[in-house]
Design goal:
The complex is a heterodimer of chains A (389) and B (202). With 389 residues, chain A is α+β, with helices and mostly antiparallel strands. Chain A contains ten helices and 16 strands. Classes of the chains: A alpha+beta (389), B alpha+beta (202).
């Protein structure tokens, strides 16, 4: 998609630079209007930002007061950087048309010929139809559909992963507000933010897009194709909170948060972890109490076999209760100590791990647990059986 | 291709005057000569006309949107008598108006082209001076689009499998149709057809 670097005015011969956004240009030497007809030239449009400065600030404040975020975030978060970027998208519009042979299924019922009588004579008169059976069949009939209409496709013209943006999320957001597109003044955009370079060739997009527009059988043809570049403004805000940096990105034309990473409300996680630990303790206590009660009142102690009863009790506790408690404590540890963040996306808000979990003090217990599980699964049961337990 | 070949002076082929048109236009206008010059491939002039707003169809300052108005004769050959009769019963279509302006809205064609073609008497044409939205549609594909428009129209009466349809263009003009802003949409000043708010991009 590389065009010429310099052009000559056909009126005065002056050297002029190729236009950036519009085909129509003025020769800076003779002042004559000129038309630039380079084949790969793309008109450029802009979805203008719809949020005022006050609205953006209010939206950011509301965002930082989210239920999954620390309660002091909106007060203590320090805005350290904000950057507006214009993300490029290819907008393919045009007309397609053709005749599609669709076919049509029709259910047909026909009366079968008269059943022959035993004596070989055919029935006559009103009784004739009572001996005829309806025969049902599905017939495929010729049918066509004429298609002539507009198409419109939107594809990213630059890799959006640098903005931690999901292609589908942003495309869906932009498609809803395409109506607001206006011709872009590239110089003005460059003065207001970073105009992101196109790094996905149009040829690749056309290859995908035109194939999508044409039917598999090739009966539909693209008759007019008008590719354009559409710039979508996004603003990235970077906050500092608790010694960490967090960023969120708002799509300014539709006023929608499209990506971001914010701290998770740790008190929720700690509370959940503590509740889980307390619940497990209560459950374990009840369980032990019940077993101890059952064993002490059992016939073994009465018969002087208390030693074996205690061993069985420990085995039950070890096999059933120990893994459960260990798992619960591990889960509680994860909740309390795992670095969690809130991620924003087109689909909403989700809580996600932000990095590796610190080493758990439960590590020796986990090793023991792994041994138990291995022993159980790997045939240790047979050994226990052999020991008479 | 040399640099010279890529730049064309935007002047009227008849009077040499400066052509009018926005930054995104591919069709430029010369109002004194009543010409529209398509810059697709090489410059080609066409008559420029304005549709007269109908009385009572909207108020306020209209915005003029460009259409290619294609006149021609459609003919078809149907494989059986039943379909021939069904097609003959259809009201003949008038000149076909294809939106020439860029629009991010799909399906403008469905709303406008067929409805204008079914009400040719309502569209009165004359001279005009008002600015027109940028036109981008290449007129080269219009005959095929007209053929398909006719075929789609015949399909309303009876299936067009095996039907051959031909369209012979007899005249092409660039027509500016007035649209007026209403509450949350545009309405054309000829038939009062509604176009969504973003259907016309200035």
């Amino acid at each position: 998609m590389s065009g010429p670097r310099a052009l000559s005015c056909p009126e005065c011969g002056g050297t002029v630079a190729p236009p950036l956004a519009a085909r129509k240009m003025i020769c800076e030497f003779c002042g004559k209007p000129l038309f630039y007809r380079e084949a790969g030239f793309l008109p450029r449009y802009l979805l203008p930002p719809s949020m005022s400065e006050q609205e953006l600030q209010a939206a950011a404040r509301t965002l930082l007061r989210g239920r999954w975020l620390p309660s002091d975030l909106s007060r203590r978060a320090l805005l350290v950087r904000r950057q507006r970027s214009y993300l490029p998208f290819y907008l393919l519009t045009g007309k397609r048309g053709g005749v599609l042979a669709t076919g049509r299924e029709r259910v047909v019922q026909e009366l079968s010929p008269s059943l022959p009588r035993q004596d070989g004579a055919a029935l006559r008169g009103p009784l004739q139809h009572s001996f005829e059976r309806p025969k049902t069949e599905v017939r495929l009939e010729e049918d066509s559909r004429v298609i002539l209409g507009d198409f419109r496709y939107l594809y990213p013209a630059a890799a959006l992963s640098n903005w931690d943006l999901l292609d589908v999320d942003l495309r869906d957001a932009v498609k809803e507000i395409l109506d607001r597109a206006v011709p872009a003044d590239m110089e003005e955009l460059a003065g207001q933010g970073e105009v992101v370079d196109v790094d996905i060739p149009l040829e690749r997009i056309l290859d995908i897009g035109v194939k999508a527009v044409q039917s598999a059988a090739g009966e539909l043809k693209v008759m007019q194709l008008q590719p354009a570049l559409l710039y979508v403004p996004v603003q990235t805000l970077t906050f500092r909170y608790g010694g960490q940096f967090y960023t969120v990105t708002v799509e300014e034309a539709g006023a929608r948060w499209v990506s971001g990473r914010l701290p998770f409300r740790r008190d929720y996680a700690v509370l959940a972890g503590l509740l889980m630990t307390a619940g497990l303790g209560l459950f374990a206590g009840q369980f032990l109490s019940a077993i101890a009660g059952a064993v002490s009142e059992g016939p073994e102690l009465a018969q002087g076999q208390g030693r074996w009863a205690v061993v069985r009790l420990l085995a039950v506790v070890g096999v059933l209760l120990f893994p459960l408690i260990a798992l619960g404590l591990n889960a509680a540890w994860l909740m309390i100590r795992a670095p969690l963040v809130v991620r924003l996306g087109g689909g909403g808000v989700r809580v996600d791990a932000a990095g590796p979990v610190p080493k758990s003090p439960m590590a020796p217990v986990n090793a023991l647990l792994r041994f138990f599980v291995g022993a159980l699964l790997g045939g240790a049961a047979k050994e226990l059986e052999r020991w008479g337990l | 291709m040399t640099g010279e070949a890529l730049l064309i002076p935007l002047v009227c082929p008849r009077c040499g005057g400066e052509l009018e048109g926005g930054e995104k236009a591919l069709v430029f206008l010369c109002h004194p000569c009543r010409l529209a010059v398509s810059m697709h491939r090489s410059p080609r002039p066409f008559p420029l006309l304005y549709a007269t707003p109908a009385a009572g169809k909207g108020s306020g300052e209209p915005v003029y949107a460009p259409f290619w108005r294609l006149e021609g004769k459609a003919s078809w050959r149907a494989p059986d008598e039943e379909r021939r009769r069904a097609y003959d019963r259809l009201t003949p279509l008038g000149p076909l108006f294809f939106p020439a302006f860029w629009s991010p809205r799909a399906a403008l064609y469905d709303n406008l082209t067929l409805r204008y073609a079914l009400a040719p008497a309502s569209i009165l044409l004359g001279p005009g001076e008002a600015p027109v939205l940028d036109g981008v549609l290449d007129p080269a594909d219009l005959p095929e689009m007209a053929r398909l428009t006719w075929l789609a129209y015949l399909d309303r009466a009876s299936d067009v499998s095996g039907v051959e349809c031909l369209f012979e263009p007899t005249g092409l003009a660039y027509v500016a149709v007035p649209f007026v802003r209403e509450a949350d949409h545009w309405a054309d000043g000829v038939l009062g057809i509604h176009v969504p708010e973003g259907g016309l991009v200035r």
